[in-house]
Amino acid sequence: MMQQGKPMSCPGVSRRHALKLGLGGPFGLSLVESLRAAGKGQRRATAKSCILIWMDGGPTHYETFDPKPGAPVEIRGSYSTISTKIPGVAFSQHMTKLASLADKLTVIRSIRHNQGNHGAGNHYMMTGAPPRIPVGCGAFVSFHPSMGSMAAHELTAPAGLPGYFSLPSMTRSGGPNFLGGKYGPFVVGGDPNRAGFRVRDVALPEGLLEPRFNSRRALRKSVDQLVRLHDATAGDPVLELDEFYQQGREIITSPDAQRAFDIHREPDKVREHYGRNAFGQRALLARRLVQAGVPFITLNQGGWDHHGDIFNALNTKLPPFEHTVGALLEDLDRLGLLETTLVLALGEFGRTPKVNSRGGRDHWSNAMSVMMAGGGTPRGLVLGATDRQGYTAVERVLSPENFVSTVYAKLGIEPNKILFTPEGRPARLVTDPTPIAELMS
Amino acid sequence: MVDALLERPEYADHWATKWSDLLRPNPYRVGIKAVFNYDNWIRQSFRENKPYDQFVRELVAAQGSTWRNGAATLFRDRRSPDEVTTLVSQLFLGIRLECTKCHHHPSEKWEQADFYRFAAYFSRVGHKGTGLSPPISGGEEMIYVTKSGSVKHPRTGKVMPPEPLFGEAAKIGPDDDPRAVLANWMTSPQNDYFVQVMVNRVWADLMGRGLVEPVDDLRATNPPSNGPLLQALGEEFRRQKYDIKQLIRTITNSYVYSLSSLPSDRNVSDTRNFSRHYRQRLNAEVMHDAICDITEVPTAFAAMPPNARAAELWTRRVGSLFLDTFGRPDPNQDPPCERTGETTVTQALHLMNAPALHAKVTSDAGRAARLAKSDRTESEVIEELYLAIYARLPSAAEKANAEQFLAANKNRRQALEDLMWAMLNTPEFVFKD
Predict the structure, then answer these.
(1) Per the CB < 8 Å rule, is B427 touching A224?
(2) What's the domain count of chain A?
(3) Which of A299, A307, A400, B356 has its CA 20 to 30 A from that of B350?
(4) Rounded to an integer, what distance in angstroms lies between the CA atom of residue A57 and that of residue A39?
(5) What are the start-end ranges of the E strands in A112-243?
(6) What pLDDT shows up at residue A422?
(7) Is residue B2 situated within a structural domain?
């Protein structure tokens, strides 16, 4: 273990050393501490991990965190409002659980941008960089590294675990771009609510028993006759693969690492609490990954593009969703993890004020609501405001750059950092690297 | 042997995959039919061994319907002169003009005006029909030469005349397509950039590293590790009438290609002068298809006929955890780029544990099951596995080792599966040595 107050040099903790350190503890928290102490981030981190709940399609701000009961009916829609734990602040009617937890989270009502297409809005909010060319709605584009890839690039995950997970799929602009494929998300598909669910590739294939695996490993060793070039100047890529192979084997054989992936170990009570559906159990798996020290986990939850029949659709979609988000916050808080885990819930933009002829709302990037909690984010804050009818952010107007800078700063990553593409072209991590001061305390 | 390999259908698919990394756009943006045609045009070019200058001329001056001429999809994808300029100059000349679009290159000779004079060759590309409307973009578009059109310098506002980056190009006559004039200049015998970037690309694929790195960045400030060799290869390529197969023959029949990757005590530090071969990880498609061949179990890809190989995929939108894990390029990335052969822990885990791979190794229809049922001797079976996986026969010691393992295991099929798994998980399979 690193000693407090002693000057440290970066290569102070080797991966193998870290593995021994970290996975000895109940959930590897001591490991995380020691790695962060030697960490590569230049800022003091207030969050060790981030869970990004990505509401793909663009969730409505009216029916979630920014209702407008005083607006005409064609704008306020058919939902009523409910009061929250914060006096004077109301959420929309289905947000009951989060309303009761409003004193634990921050809602930003005043982020806005100028990209009204899914592809472009995704890119802007996910990377902090506006798309360089006009991007259509169906497009999946990447011009800049995503927050998750940057976290994987800058922060250390324990025991060779991937630093960036994405469940059950990658988000549109969630890729590494010029950072390279190594920093892309480790995608865990499948439905963790299913009885036979397993995280891919980190455990032996079903039906393969451990003795057979051990015998295979011994056999592998004996057939592996390729000469390694141990001279460092030879740059033999095989040595790198050897190291990864060793790490992979450690993940497979370490009971503690395996425990992180094994959602079936959670007591039924906890699983019920998160909601027995795919999204609920993914949130629970994300919490387990946080406990194991993974820096960034995205939960990609689509279906927020309500161009028609929005109220009926949300009657079924919102309650279980907001219940799970609330359960995640409660659970993290109960485990003492909320202070060091940043939880975000947002999509690419808000939705149009006037309910359209099909009973839906369309894309609207002039206003949106973003939920943030944990990682030193103020408990019980509503920041900024839209106008009386929710058309546009008018008070404490903030940009995607501000938002993304805040996430980076909390993770201890300098948003002002200059990255170099493989071509040697400098690229600022965020062009306006100003975090939101109110959230940084 | 080289000749026989070059005549195999996999040749075209392998090199088409390489070019589609660079050219083929995302079908959700550009349209399925247009991208499918484009992919087919690229593949057909390699099937025919189309001379490289003709390949470039047909592409740079493509006209007609994106539903009939796949090459025209380039102009459906890259719609404005500046978008085409950066792609054409980088891919086919190895000259990166991206920076000069906005400012004079501080350390290079290209200036902003060069960029727009070059872009002016694309000022008369017309589009007729249904443009892009993602996520479907299903329409047909005609690419044609318009009567007029110009490119302006963004700062001075001056209309820029089409001029090449260096040397002389023919005058553009009233009935000429300016792009054809440009293509003639690009492919003219005076243009060393044109041949050198291509031979460098092919060299890099075969040798593990380019004479110039990055492979499409030729400039005085990024010199090749062996200038005379690059020059000579370029001239040879031109002399062979831009025959790509002949170029591959020239390189693979050379002494330098035959060198071992094992260093002597004197060249261990050499990582750029080709005094030894440099190890390269197999790329995603090659490794995937090799595993299918070894296990004798194909993968069922969506949007492809049965038994299709990964190298035949017409778009990267066809899902494959394997190909994603081993780093096929992200189709959403702009600009498109060469892939890197890096290794990761997820790759190691995938080879070890992926259920899809496990299913192939242990399939009832697979090679291990077939060999186990056969009446062939252990020695023959082991030789077959070594040939299939390592492309060589086992040494006496290796054979004895494997025989011992098979003898110690009662279940012959399981033992063969284990041997196959073990070999697939060694670097000798994963790397080109």
Answers:
(1) yes
(2) 1
(3) A299
(4) 35
(5) 164-167, 186-187
(6) 74
(7) no
ipTM for the whole predicted complex goes beyond 0.90: no
* Residue A80 confidence (pLDDT): 97
Q: Are residues B229 and B357 in the same domain?
A: no
Domain boundary pick from B139, B162, B186: B186
- CA B136 to each of CA B28, B34, B127, B243, B269: distance values in angstroms, whole numbers, following the listed order: 6, 11, 18, 37, 52
**Cα dihedral sign for B382, B386, B392, B396?**
negative
CB A341 within 8 A of CB A51: yes
Would you say residue A176 lies in a domain?
A: yes
CATH number, domain of A305, equals: 3.40.720
Give the ranges where A61-209 is alpha helix by DSSP (H).
Answer: 73-76, 96-100, 118-127, 147-154
Contacts of A89 (CB under 8 A, 6+ apart): A83, A102, A382
Cβ atoms of A367 and A60 closer than 8 Å: no
Q: Is residue A52, in this structure, part of any structural domain at all?
A: yes
Q: What are phi and psi of B219, to 5 degrees?
A: -165, 160
Query: Does A220 contact B430 at a Cβ distance shorter than 8 Å?
Result: no
User: Do B422 and A220 count as a contact with CB atoms less than 8 A apart?
Assistant: yes
Show the domain range for A408: 42-192+293-440
Q: Select from A161, A241, A425 the residue whose CB has the most chain B CBs within 10 Å, as the one to mutate to test that interface.
A: A241
Of A71, A163, A109, which is closest to residue A353 (Cα–Cα)? A71
Residues of B in contact with A240 (CB under 8 A): 343
Q: Are A22 and A159 in contact (CB under 8 A)?
A: yes
Q: What is the pLDDT of residue A414?
A: 96
Q: Domain span at residue B390? A: 281-432
* Paired residues of B219 in beta bridges: B222
CA atoms of A285 and B27, how far apart (whole Å): 34
Same domain, B136 and B68: yes
Number of neighbouring beta carbons within 10 Å of residue B95: 23
Q: Would B296 be classed as within a structural domain?
A: yes
Chain B CB contacts of A237 below 8 Å: 279-281, 341, 343, 431
Q: Are A137 and A411 in contact (CB under 8 A)?
A: no
- Are B387 and B409 within one domain? yes
Tokens 């909390």 sit on residue: A410
- Pair (B325, B384) in one structural domain: yes
Sign of CA dihedral B404, B410, B412, B414: negative
How much is the pLDDT for B340? 66
Please indicate whether, in this complex, the C-beta atoms of B353 and A202 are within 8 angstroms of each other.
yes
A26, part of any domain: no
Same domain, B270 and B332: no
**Is there a contact between A392 and A113 (Cβ–Cβ < 8 Å)?**
no
Contact between residue A248 and residue A290 where contact means Cβ atoms under 8 Å apart: no
Confirm whether A171 is domain-assigned.
yes
Cβ pair A89, A60 in contact under 8 A: no
- What is the nearest CA distance from A223 to chain B, expressed in angstroms? 7
CA gyration radius, chain B: 25
Of B245, B278, B311, at which residue does a domain stop?
B278
Residues B199 and B166 in one domain: no
Is the pLDDT at A266 greater than 60? The verdict is yes
Residue B212 domain-assigned (yes or no) = yes
**Residue for token digits 């079924």?**
A316
What is the number of domains present in chain B?
3
The dihedral of CA A10, A14, A17, A23: what is its sign?
positive
pLDDT at residue B151 in the model:
94
For residue A7, is pLDDT > 50? no
Q: Taking 80 as the threshold, does the pLDDT of residue A16 lie above it? A: no
Burial of A393 (0-12, 13-18, 19+ CB in 10 A): buried
- Asked whether residue B3 is domain-assigned, the answer is no
SS3 labels along B233-290: HHHHHHHCCCCHHHHHHHHHCCCHHHCCCCCCCCCCCCCCCCCCCCCEECCHHHHHHH
What's the angle, vertex CA B425, arms to CA B422 and CA B430, rounded to 5?
Answer: 135
